[in-house]
């Protein structure tokens, strides 16, 4: 079981000029190769969440943004990150979570066949041009949703799971509430612009980071979101990832883009360098490539300034022994059942770090390899930041003759 320290380390961003006159390829290249911007260390408080989206300041490249380290839930950068903002197709991230959870619990299978309804076939915007009655596997439909941001596939999947898009939206909002996404509300399964009398799907940068963190628990999500291109409909249609960073930013393997006029260009991106992963959320950029540029720069700053410092690797020996009553060997040294690490500023993360063991004085034989013996709690600067199981590295049988002696003396 992991213990998480949810920290907040806000930063400051220098303004980015509003004029982008360089050709798009050059802009993106500069974004990836430019030296990372350092995060300032001063704190600022969150403004109260607003009911409607505020206009973007003329000198800002985005309306709001956040960067999170997902293992600990630490935010290392935040800008207006509790302001509800139109999600556009980022709404599909919640559909992705519902599907991923149901695959995990066995109530859905990737091989499930989904038939396109008439309503799904009539969806506009980004689509894979599903025809009424056309059938695809859930896996193929989700590739269309995640890679190509297909609204028709989103609608078809929602109908298949919940019976109607309205019922599926209820599931989305229940999930949002369960995750503590207080600045969010969903009205559609796809994130298209609202029609007359309808409301826009909204979520803050903070909430989008929470959602992305949850999505990372499911391998299928990154399998879908890391695809660059993939064939669809037997190769007649090519899915091409709308997230340019999977092609241009080292270690990027997700997650989702979103756009319509009032929402601007939105992006939730994630990348992993070594043992550390970051999530970057950028909402409301005015130009198509600005969201990628800003997310890349935010992640580069994070990877440059922070580290996931290893305290003990999986399989490392604990510094305490445990006696084994009636064991073939008198004691054993437990080992770490998983990696134990602390996250923090580069060069500072492991300062004032202690390991506190919770182990019994003795246990009874027999002991099985992999059996949990106790736990190790990692404490950084006086606060618990991680807890890892301590397990037996080997089988320890009862010592020879112990059963016979017990039988004899037990009858006396």
Description:
- The chain contains eleven helices and 20 strands.
- Helix 2 packs parallel to helix 7.
- With 412 residues, it is of the alpha+beta class.
- The chain is globular.
- The two termini are 45 Å apart.
- Helix content is 27%, strand content 26%.
- It has two domains: 282 residues, 3-Layer(aba) Sandwich (Beta-lactamase), CATH 3.40.710.10; 79 residues, Sandwich (Peptidoglycan synthesis regulatory factor (PBP3), Domain 2), CATH 2.60.410.
- The N terminus is likely disordered.
- It has a five-stranded antiparallel beta sheet with strand order 2-1-11-10-9, sandwiched between helices. It has a four-stranded antiparallel beta sheet with strand order 15-20-19-17, with no helix packed on it. Strands 14-13-18 form a three-stranded mixed beta sheet, with no helix packed on it.
- Strand 19 and strand 20 form a beta hairpin.
Question: Can I get a quick summary?
Answer:
The protein has eleven helices and 20 strands. It has 412 residues and is an alpha+beta fold.
């Amino acid at each position: 079981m992991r213990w998480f320290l949810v920290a907040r380390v806000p930063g400051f961003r220098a303004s980015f000029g509003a004029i982008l006159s360089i050709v798009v390829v050059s802009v993106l290249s500069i974004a990836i190769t430019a030296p990372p911007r350092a995060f300032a260390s001063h704190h600022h408080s969150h403004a109260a969440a607003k009911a409607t989206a505020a206009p973007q300041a003329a000198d800002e490249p985005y309306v709001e943004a956040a960067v999170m380290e997902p293992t600990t839930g630490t935010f290392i950068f935040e800008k207006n990150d509790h302001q509800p903002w139109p999600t556009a197709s980022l709404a599909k991230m919640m559909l992705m979570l519902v599907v991923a959870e149901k695959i995990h619990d066995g109530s859905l299978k990737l091989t499930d066949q989904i038939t396109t309804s008439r309503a799904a076939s009539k969806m506009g915007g980004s689509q894979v041009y599903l025809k009424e009655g056309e059938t695809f596997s859930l896996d193929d439909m989700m590739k269309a949703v995640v890679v190509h941001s297909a609204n028709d596939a989103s609608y078809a999947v929602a109908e298949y799971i919940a019976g109607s898009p309205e019922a599926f939206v209820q599931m989305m909002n229940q999930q949002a509430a369960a995750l503590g996404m207080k600045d969010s509300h969903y009205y559609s399964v796809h994130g298209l612009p609202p029609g007359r009398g309808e409301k826009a799907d909204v979520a803050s940068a903070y909430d989008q980071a929470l959602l992305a963190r949850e999505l990372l628990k499911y391998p299928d999500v990154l399998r879908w979101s890391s695809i660059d291109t993939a064939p669809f409909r037997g190769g007649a249609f090519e899915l091409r990832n709308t997230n340019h960073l999977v092609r241009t930013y080292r270690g990027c393997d997700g997650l989702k883009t979103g756009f319509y006029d009032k929402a601007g260009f939105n992006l939730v991106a994630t990348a992993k360098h070594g043992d550390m992963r970051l999530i970057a959320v950028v909402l409301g950029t005015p130009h198509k490539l600005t969201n990628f540029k800003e997310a890349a720069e935010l992640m580069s700053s994070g990877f440059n300034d922070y580290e996931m410092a290893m305290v003990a690797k999986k399989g490392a020996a604990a510094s305490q022994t445990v006696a084994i009553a009636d064991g073939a060997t008198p004691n054993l040294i437990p080992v770490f059942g998983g990696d134990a690490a602390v996250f923090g500023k580069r060069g500072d993360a492991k300062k004032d770090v202690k390991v506190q063991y919770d182990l019994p004085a003795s246990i009874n034989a027999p002991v099985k390899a992999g059996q949990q013996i106790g736990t190790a709690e990692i404490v950084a600067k006086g606060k618990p930041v991680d807890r890892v199981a301590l397990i037996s590295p080997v089988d320890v049988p009862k010592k020879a003759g112990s059963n016979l002696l017990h039988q004899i003396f037990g009858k006396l």
